[in-house]
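With this grant's support, we have settled on a layout for protein records. One resulting record is reproduced below.
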Amino acid sequence: MHSTLILSTLVGLAIAAPRPQLMNLDAIDAAPDPVFMTPSYDVVSETPAVSKRGTLVQKRDGTCAQQPDGYGPVASPDTVDAFIAFPTLQAMATNAPTPDGYASVFTDENASLSASNYMGLHTLQSFDTLGCASLCDQADGCEAFNMYIERDPSVDPNAVNCPNPPSITNFKCTLWGAPVSADEAVNQGQWRDSFEVVITGSNGYNKASPPDACSGFSGPTEFGGAINAPLDNGHNTYMGYKYFPFSQTQGYTPSTCASACTSQTAYNGRHPASDGSYQTCAFFNAYVLSEDGVPQGLYCSLYNETWAASYATNYGQYRGSDRYTVSRSYGYSLSLS
């Protein structure tokens, strides 16, 4: 009888469905095309300013003004061909670590992204995929980034007075609000009077999916870094941390932090203050701690109060030459129900 009920239910669903749930490609074709953006060239930083065509507003002919010096090596001879073939630059791209929480989409292309939902550009002091990922984590809605090397003019080219100046090498980081693909790496550069801007060592990365929910807690809430909570009216809400090194049995599982949070509350309840009061763990911040780009373990910071994303300002630190970074940082609050 049970099998009969299941069969009749399935038949009813089949009858109720007017046709297979296929994509309506005719409607997709009729919809507006996506807007693809190309970041500006030889700028230090940029916040998108969109024209009607969906391209960024470009500067007029230059003034020969000195440009901020690049941090990368310059090819010898100082030509486009030498820049593209420069093994030092290629090695930077191919040896760059893939940041935790991201997936590599393409590596060492000679073109940067021209894609949808452009969120801005930053010039860095090295080919720093970890730093670029941190900027993406701090930018609300960032889903991907592009790290690349750009051959730029040392002065602002002018058709009459300085049409083809010596080059500098810049490390560029662009942020994107939608996933990217290798097919969108089509921006090979441009001419600035007689100077040719070109790109090499272009790497693209997409952000990983958020972690699962944890039973008994609301969340996850994505953070750009780790929580750095101030005192709340003189009260310290930080209850300490638990650290779980990665192993065959321990991965990135925020549920481990949830167990640590509830266990801490239970322990405090068994060891109350003299007046019978004790602290309850009401919020935890789970993130991956990496050393020099290598994920080390799951870090769980515990609090007796929920803190917003605006307090997630700890992006990592150095100890000597060792660089410790924060990734996959999420917050969970104890459910009241």
Q: What stands out?
A: The CA atoms of residues 93 and 119 lie 22 Å apart.
